[in-house]
Amino acid sequence: MTDDQINAAIAEACGWTDIFEHPEFGLMGVAPEPHGCWTAVEVYAHCLNAMHEAERHLGESTNMLDYNNALYDMACRAMKQNGKWNPYGATARQRAEAFLKTLGKWEEVQG
Hints:
There is one protein chain. It is built from five helices and three strands. It is of the alpha+beta class and 111 residues long. The chain has one domain (3-102). It has a three-stranded antiparallel β-sheet with strand order 1-2-3, with helices on one face. The longest helix is centred in the middle third of the chain and has 19 residues, at 64-82. The protein is globular. The chain starts with a helix and ends in a 9-residue tail after the last helix.
C-alpha cells in the first residue's frame, strides 16, 4: 500500500469521513472531532504520535492481542533480514501495517 492509502485507511478506521486527495494540500478529510471542518489527514505512515492515537481505537474495535501478534511477526521478519530484535522499536510504517492487518484492511501490493 502507498503512504496515502495507509493514511486514508487508518483515518477511516479512526472515524474520519469524506477523505479525498486535494491537488494542493494532499489527503484531506473531516476529523471525528465536533468542528466538522476539512483538515489534513494525519500522516500515520510516518508519525509515531499519530500511530499512538490510532492504536487507542483498537481497544474499542478489536483484540489488542491481534495487533501485538502482528507487530511481533514484523519484528521476527526484521530479525531475519538484519539480525536485530526489537518489537518495541517498530517504526510508524510497521505499526500502520500491523494496525491495518489487525482490522483486515491491509492490501498487499500487486506487482
